[in-house]
Amino acid sequence: MSEHKTLSRRDFVKTAGNAAAAVTVLSKLPIASGSNARRRYAIVGTGDRGTGMWGSDLVERYPDLLEFVGLCDSNHKRASVAKTIIGVECPTFTNFSEMLEKSRPDLLMVTTVDAFHSHYIIQALDRGIDVITEKPMVIDEKQCQAVLDAEKRNNRKIVVAFNYRYAPKHQKIKEILLSGEIGRVISVDFSWYLDVVHGADYFRRWHRLKSGGGSLLVHKASHHFDLINWWLGADPVEVSARGGLEVYGKKGPLRSTHCRPCPHKKDCRFYYDLTTSERRMKLYAACEDVDQYHRDGCVFREDIDIYDNMSAIVKYSNAAIMSYSLNAFMPIEGYRVAFNGEKGRLEVRDYERQPFPVEEETEMYVTKSFGQREKITVPNVTAGHGGGDLRLRDLIFRKTELPKYMQLPDSRAGAMSCLTGIAARNSIEQGRLIKIGDLVRI
Ligand SMILES: NC(=O)c1ccc[n+]([C@@H]2O[C@H](COP(=O)([O-])OP(=O)(O)OC[C@H]3O[C@@H](n4cnc5c(N)ncnc54)[C@H](O)[C@@H]3O)[C@@H](O)[C@H]2O)c1
Predict the structure, then answer these.
(1) What ligand 1 atom has the least distance to the C-alpha of 120?
(2) What are the angstrom distances between the C-alpha of 27 and each of 22, 24, 60, 391, 409?
(3) Which one of 43, 44, 46, 48 would you pick to mutate in the ligand 1 pocket, going by the greatest count of ligand atoms within 8 A of its CB?
(4) 51 CA distance to ligand 1 middle (Å)
(5) How far apart are CA 406 and CA 423, in angstroms?
(6) pLDDT digit of tens for each residue in the chain (442 aa)?
(7) First to last CA, the chain
(8) Distances (CA, A) of 152 to 50, 145, 331, 437
């Protein structure tokens, strides 16, 4: 297998379809200022992601480009703790409008609970402020339409922080598919495994409620659906799905409010000791009297209404069909994806964590029909999200050089990834096939 092949413009458009159109629009996005002035940067949602990936890491990496002018969180104590963790002197707020008014940011980072992303994105766009939002962009079709409309009426562009695309191994998959080596992709088998550590963690927090994160089909799978949309260069068209809650929530054998005061500590295999993390004790435990947000919430609470096992069939605009599954109670963490093409198959097994040794984190093979199997050398990067976090931030803030198909994900990508999950959730709830075109006007 040759390394990355250079594609002609014609080949790229032919293969990447809608992704190419998105790139044209995104290249105009003015995230890096281009002048010597630092951008006035504010954050709404000062939890883990806001203080780390989009907080202290930025202070360290881009002091020449960004000036922190405001931090906003519904929990005033957490906003103050965040200010110390990030290491900045800017004011903190609980009232978002007041922050915009007083701090006058020209770039907003949205890292709140998923359900509130659209509320803040729209207010910022309506005031002419550029927005970067964490995924998922929104959690339902109404919010999706509202964000797309706000972007259009203000003639602005937002960036959705799809870091997974920027892991070198995921770029490799994109390049193999673009090279045409396996021909037109006819179907995709995609299974994502969340283990009893990472998977369980979603059931401890706000993600456990559909009203918080839209279910893991939106909160988590929007990463996976974005990868697929981008890899295929196609849009989802219709979705049918099934899901259940079999391990967490009501099905659990015992329960409490959260782990620290729990009388079942010794018997519960999901017991999580928050006190071992100084950072989390400061950011969450020390602030929980304000909002009762327990970072170590019980995974067996009866109010949990999301699924822990989900399967979906998705049909795409290029006629490809994907069978997808997500399980959140596994002994292993990672994924398996295979692209079945006219001329061959690209097969990937990613091992993130498992109770057995593996020789390499990612195994990738191309097998040609009537031909041979070839092992692909995969760049192994251990930094956050397979190296994706670093590269995404450098692309946003330093405008680093990357091939066109690696340009920043826009609202369209944000919408299409969420809508796949929203359609899957609706399909489970309504017991029928859902057409993406019936959900929003794009
Ligand atoms: N791209 C990735 O790989 C990745 C990884 C982790 C999290 N995320 C995303 O980042 C976001 C934050 O996740 P997190 O893990 O930091 O969660 P978190 O719970 O640690 O932080 C969320 C913060 O939002 C605040 N908040 C809640 N409701 C609010 C409201 N109405 N207005 C203002 N603030 C409010 C909370 O007090 C909390 O400080 C989520 O959207 C999540 O999906 C993305």
Answers:
(1) 32
(2) 9, 6, 26, 17, 10
(3) 48
(4) 10
(5) 26
(6) 332 333 332 332 333 333 333 332 333 344 544 456 899 999 999 999 999 999 999 999 999 999 999 999 999 999 999 999 999 999 999 999 999 999 999 999 999 999 999 999 999 999 999 999 999 999 999 999 999 999 999 999 899 999 999 999 999 999 999 999 999 999 999 999 999 999 999 999 999 999 999 999 999 999 999 999 999 999 999 999 999 999 999 999 999 999 999 999 999 999 999 999 999 999 999 999 999 999 999 999 999 999 999 999 999 999 999 999 999 999 999 999 999 999 999 999 999 999 999 999 999 999 999 999 999 999 777 777 777 899 999 999 998 889 999 999 999 999 999 999 999 999 999 999 999 999 999 8
(7) 38
(8) 27, 11, 45, 18
Cβ within 8 Å of residue 430, ≥6 positions away? none
| Ligand 1 site residues, Cβ closer than 6 angstroms | 44-50, 73-75, 78, 111-114, 116, 134-135, 161, 163, 205, 219, 385
Q: Cα(49) to centroid of ligand 1, in Å? A: 6
Tokens coding 343: 């001329």
CA angle 42, 46, 48 (to 5 degrees): 130
For 123, counting Cβ atoms within 10 Å of its Cβ (0-12 exposed, 13-18 middle, 19+ buried), the class is middle
